[in-house]
Design brief:
With 234 residues, the chain is of the alpha/beta class. The chain has one domain: Alpha-Beta Barrel (TIM Barrel), CATH 3.20.20. α3 links the parallel β4 and β5. α2 runs parallel beside α3. It starts with a helix and ends with a strand. Bound molecules: iron/sulfur cluster. The site of iron/sulfur cluster (SF4) has 14 residues, from loops. The site of iron/sulfur cluster has 14 residues, from loops.
Length: 234
Amino acid sequence: MRDREGREDQRNQKDQNNKKNQEVRILLAAVRDHCRVLGPGERFCIWVQGCPFSCPGCIAPSMHNLDGGYLMSADQLAEQILSTEGIEGITISGGEPFLQAGELAALLRQVKEKKNLGVIVYTGFYYERLLELSQIHPEIGQFLELIDLLIDGPYEEAHNFDYGMKGSENQRTILLTDRYQDDLYLYNDPESGRKNELYQSDSQSFLAGVPSKKMELQWKRMIRENGKAEKGEK
Ligand code: SF4
């Protein structure tokens, strides 16, 4: 009898969690499913919409405005990630992911329940500030607990030395688990080049990955000449 009640409780809890996730919606700028330029292996990459930092020289100004982007339920996005075969993990960038810490934590919980995917997050906040903020916003701590590698700090144009999968030298690669301990060279080794993927449709061009200075100039020229809506990564 007690077993049956226990199972019933578990089912109710699961139903409640599912219902909550359907209600959680994430403001997105873009997603790409087999991206190779923002971490090791093939990754499901998510660019969130909205950023408070306005770093001079930011490559993704179209992702700053909280009125832009589009909403998707955490449930629907989790399904999309889980049905993507052959990926090592997820990279979340933007925009500023920690503006939607609770929503992204709900998404990652749902995904990680079913698949052991790694999680890399780019943020304009420094880690210490996130720890301070987590005292008053517990969802920030909950999001941090689900991240394997955090690339922190704002983009500083003067410290962009043109290598690696991070925008500038002040940004740190912080291992929150040991999952990516052998991959830090991708970000920090001066020999590590930058790679991009360019996606184009009739109405939009989208550049994924941290661009080299040369690529950044070409990209900005292309946007000016074509007049297409642009999106890019920090
Ligand atoms: S570089 Fe990143 S943190 Fe800075 S304004 Fe752009 S999106 Fe925001």
